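Crash report, auto-generated. Payload:
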Amino acid sequence: MEFLNPTGLFGLLALPLLLIPYLIRRKPKRIAFSSLLLFLESGEAASAKPWGRVNLPPIFFLQLLLLALLIVAVSEPVFSIRPTNIAIILDNSASMQALEDGKPRFALAKERASAIVGQLGAGGKVDLYLTTPRLEKIHAAPLAPAEATGIIAAQMPYDLAEPPTDYGNLLPQLARQQKFERIYLITDHPARGQSVAARVITVGQPRANFALTHLEVQRSSLVNARLEARVEVANYSERDEKLKIVLKGNGAELASREVVAGAGKTASVAFEGFADRPAYEAEIANRDALPLDNRRFAVAPASRNLRILGITPRPRELDSLKAIPGVHIETIAPSDYDQTERTGYGLEIYHFAAPAALPATAALFILPPENSSLVDLGVPVNNVTVSNWRAPHVLTRYVNFNLFRTSYARPLKPQTAGDIVIDSAAGPLAFATERQGVRYLTLGFDPFPYLGRDNLPMSVFTLNLLDWFFASRAGNSQATGEAIFLGKVQSGDRLILPGGKSLAITPGAGFFGGAFFQGIYQLNRGGTVEMYARNLLDPGESDLRAATPIAIGGGEQSSGSASLLFSFWPYLLIASLMLLLLEWFLSPRMASIKFWRGPSRAAQRS
Amino acid sequence: MSNVFANLEFARPYFLWLLLLLPVLWLRLSDRRLWVLLARTAVFGLVIVTLAEP
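Recovered output after restart:
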């Protein structure tokens, strides 16, 4: 026998409360009477105390039984038969790495799973599933118990957020479709209810936790090589905490700061002027429940030198960009585009030109021809004034748009999703978009030549757009699970995972989709090393105070599981009803019977 | 409130027939105080409704 709602059994602790009415005595009343002789013979001495000796009539035990039956019925007792065809779903999301008395939740989950498998007979069958990155079976055919135990022991949690899943509907549906007699979901979410087919086993308790929620390392601007790092920390606890943040480069400590994070709030801290390193790591030195989110990784921003390839029929206009410190530009004619080796450039500027396909590097399109894949062009207009612009935005900061004039423009008609950054009465003038982490900007006007102070609004805008492209090369980290785009792969290229494992990349592979662990991924491509940072970016995994409960309804039953349980709580309720009726009619009579009391003093004397 | 009752269903409505037993309680109206009778009626009714699985 087992209970679907064992919490209800705590109600049995309330049973002694039934004694209270029998312990309370009525306050004695003074009544004038001719003789007290007969009362003295058989009565008890009057007492001013509200409590008296326990004097339990038989009706008390009837009421006790009635109350106990009702409480046991609430806990939904069922007779169960041991299932033989089961599925175990292990929650392998990031929060399962939280420590419970020094032991990770996932280790506890594996122990529980192994114990369930151990209870199966030799002929039992087990299917194993993992929840992250999506609910998926981790083997093809059903496993024998011994085989399943081995596979369970080999599993490990990912540094990934759990995908949103409605387990209340999904588990009974899975049981029905796959004909599982029972499905066990072992997770750190609390369970609200259980059902015949689906059981949720919870490991772990609500805990206080801190997390690094942001790390960004960048240069101040294109013309300022000074490095800046901004770290944000969240305090998922009920009290203010003083946290020590350490910034590391290649494992060595570069700087540290202390910050006070209020209860349930975030705080940020900035580092400046530290040494240049290929990759950075920020860490909270304080210990807490989930060590995983106490670390965060970022790759170094790109070199302050921006190499630009200009594809233009008017090279002199683009050459004016050489006046900007840190900018190196080489120009080619559009007709030479196909014959030119284009590797090593941080930005390509298509000046009155457009490639057949979008380039793999960031690109600025200035008045592209009609066949552009990003925009169509409107009717030419002269002396356009800007009517609207995106703010705050890197492209529009510090630009005085009242003085911003362009003698010739063609309004843009975006053909893809993106941001209209600058707009005019005639139509959009600047359209920004991003594909697979690569930024593209299309302008309906020509900002060149770069004239510096002679055309300040346009020069500021030009510097802004170079900064915008420059920032896109800063290598800001992305979430774990997001693909790493490999570009053109050659034989011998390798990807080194955060744990040090080296993977050979198959030529033709467009991306690597297995970045499930936090850290720095190194792509060794033809002698050069590119780094990618991946971090856990889900506050829901870090906030361990109150996980969302999983509500399992009892109504849905799988075809195989219906015969496994026999619910008899309705019979307990029927028995309670009968007892209620019985007690109602017996109560006055039985209460008057003196029970467990010795013979009266008068009888003793006689 | 009327919407709540409009959407109310019972998984085992046949248990509601047990409500017919309620007048049996009221047979002893004269022996008991009124509040005791009302309280017992409420308890009895709740148990029956629970059985009917609303």
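Post-recovery validation: The mean pLDDT of chain A is 83.
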